[in-house]
Amino acid sequence: MPDDRAVDDRAQKVIVQDVVIRYERAGFAVTAVEGLSLSVRDGEFVAVVGQSGCGKSTLLKAIDGLIPVASGYIEVDGRRVTRPGPTKAMVFQDGRLLPWRTVLGNIMLPLEGRGVPKAEAHDRAMALVERVGLTRFAKAFPNQLSGGMQQRVNLARALVVNPQVLLLDEPFAALDAQTREYMQQELLNIWERDRVTAVFVTHQIDEAIFLADRVLVLSSSPGRLRREFVIDIPRPRQLAIKRTPQFHAYEDAIWSEIGAFGGDTSGAPVQPVVTSGAVA
Amino acid sequence: MTAGLPAEAAGLPVGLAGTPSNVTVLARRRGAPRFTLQLISVVGGLSAWQLFAMSGIVPPLFLPKLSDVLVDLWNLVSTGKLNQHLLASGIEFGGGMLAALVVGIVVGIGMGASSRIDKLLVWWVSALDATPRIAFAPLLIIWFGIGLESKMVLVFISGLFPILLSTASGVRTTSRELLEMAESFSIPRLMQFRAIILPGAVPFIITGVRLGITRGLIGIVVGEMIASTQGIGWMLSNATDTFNMVRVFALIIVLAFVGVSLTTFARWLERRFDTWRAV
Fold it and tell me: What is the tally of structural domains in chain B?
């Protein structure tokens, strides 16, 4: 099992150092993340897994600059993160598309926000529409799209700004198992072209292994870095690798890591891992 | 596309192109008998009116014959008399509603977006909204005279509050998730307003406009009945004073027609701005 820190001389793109994140819920101060340190190299695809409530989404929002850190610091591209900026782009779990704008209009939004001229914004957005395979639906409204297509728009809206770091917050969590697998493959195909640095938060272990170069396991309440797994599976990857013994070995290792502190003493997966879907 | 996956799994919509036409066909099929029923209802009701009035059970002063009313209506239209008064009422209504729209939307946005503005105005708005607008009519006539202006102001204050209050709640209910998304993409404040907050508030604003139109219509008729020199309300009170019941009924039919037209227009507006909400 490759589990060591790979020797890699690529630049550190994201650095999270001794970070503590607190927020208030119903008058109580909740510590979502405590003493968390991690780093992501340029062009690396990192997945963050952990149980619900381990603060993984909170961490992602902090990297984006949407929420402040109580102590420690976060650097993206060598600069301290204090607020959202043009180097980062987020793919949200729940779409967050503007229902009154078309697919194209939604993808143009971030460009308009940056004052890109209309014609240029249109062309760039259209290129992304094509890249995520929605050419026929450029003029459709979000409510006319399936969940999978909405998430393609969501992804295109993040990619259109050419981010240095792509942040993905459980983007496929609301999709059914088959669509999810299909979208995982689509995401990799799209990602392969630029290999933009990506941080992908998920609670699906198989999704994390399939997509990522490295899987970080967080412990829960408060979130700390529990362990990291280097996924030594060559790219480009196809869904078929999910059925290989190597893949299952990764799954078992990560599951037992989560089971070791998740209250499940049996060490067996707490829930079945979806790998049995129809895969070409 | 990965082979062996059904279209749904591929994230493609099911029958996107086919659905709308199917829906229309269904609606038409179900709509036909309903329209017949509506026709029967209208023709039957009007016939009953005519027959009851002809029977002589009630004196014509209480209920004139429909035929007499229609003749009078025709005379009003053909002599241009109705037109002239309708125009006067229309100017009052149009001017008042336009002002109510502009002020209602602007102040509504202010109150919805800023809690400071809201706190400054909320007492006045609530108190004025709760007061029957007709109570202001005598006052307005003293202030602005019996001409068009007093009625315009009455329409303005009648239509203003529904528009203002719905706009404010529309702005207030902007999705937090969408605003967080906008913040994540560093969308400037002004553009957040134009691209997210306002479009989200449009359905609310239009609902307010629809309510405002109805209230404005009441305002105009009552205002004109109290004191004026022209307009539909003035004709109505004139006809009542001279016991011209045929005229009273003719004018009520005109008002019903105007009311239905305006509400239909508001509904159309609602649908026009709401295409993205349609299934």
Answer: 2
Same domain, B115 and B32: no
Q: In what order do the strands lie in the sheet with A79-80?
A: A28-41, A12-25, A71-76, A79-80
A113–B177 CB contact, under 8 Å:
no
Is residue A275 domain-resident? no
Looking at residue A8, its pLDDT comes to 60
CA B239 to chain centre: 27
pLDDT band of B275, cuts 50, 70, 90: low
Q: B133 and B44 in one domain?
A: no
Q: Are residues A54 and A114 in the same domain?
A: no
pLDDT at A164: 93
Give the pLDDT confidence of B213-247 residue by residue, as tens digits: 989 999 999 999 988 889 999 999 999 999 999 99
Q: How far is A56 from chain B (nearest CA, A)?
A: 17
Q: How many angstroms separate the CA atoms of B182 and A157, rounded?
A: 11
Query: What is the tens place of the pLDDT at every residue in B182-219?
Result: 999 999 999 999 999 988 898 899 889 889 998 999 99
* B43/B178 same-domain check: no
Looking at the predicted structure, is the pLDDT value of residue B7 above 50? no
Residues B81 and B49 in one domain: no
> Which domain covers residue A110, as residue numbers?
94-162
Find the CATH number of the domain harbouring A209: 3.40.50.300
B1 min Cα distance to partner chain A (Å): 9
- φ and ψ of A91, to 5 deg: -105, 115
The helix/strand/coil state of A30 is: strand
Task: Report yes or no for ipTM above 0.90.
Answer: no
**B159 and B227 inside one domain:** yes
Same domain, A131 and A82: no
Chain A residue with the nearest C-alpha to that of B188: A113
How far apart are alpha carbons A252 and A264 in whole angstroms? 14
Indicate whether A77 and A145 sit together in one domain: no
B9–A178 C-beta distance less than 8 A: yes
**Candidates A113, A114, A183; nearest CB to B11:** A183
Q: How far apart are CA B79 and CA B74, in angstroms?
A: 8
Q: Which domain holds residue B39?
A: 22-55
Number of domains in chain A: 2
What are the tens digits of pLDDT across the range A90-112? 999 988 999 999 999 999 999 99
Contact B275 A141 (CB under 8 A): yes
Instruction: Spell out which residues of chain A touch residue B188, defining contact as CB-CB under 8 Å.
Output: 113
Residues of A in contact with B195 (CB under 8 A): 98, 101, 109, 112
Of all residues in chain A, the one with the smallest CA distance to B183 is A84
Name the nearest CA neighbour of A191 among A85, A43, A15: A43
Give CA–CA dist B241/B226, Å, rounded.
Answer: 12
Residue A280 lies in a domain: no
pTM of the full structure? 0.76
Q: Which residues of A touch B178 (CB under 8 A)?
A: 96, 98
